[in-house]
Amino acid sequence: MNKHNLTVLNEFILMGITDRPELRAPLFGFFLIVYMVSVMGNLGLIILTMVDSRLHTPMYFFLRHLAFTDLGYSTAVGPKMLTNFIVGQHTISYNWCATQLAFFCIFIVSEIFVLSTMAYDRYVAICNPLLYTVIMSPRVCQVLVVIPYVYSLLLSLLMTIKIFISPFCGFNVIRHFYCDSLPLISLICSSTYDIKLIILAFSGFNLVLSLLIILVSYMMILVAILKMKSVEGRLKAFSTCGSHLTVVVVFYGTLFFMYVHPKSSHSFDTNKMASVFYTLVIPMLNPIIYSLRNKEVKNAVDRTWKECSNILL
Question: Where is the signal peptide, in residue numbers (predicted)?
Answer without folding.
Answer: none
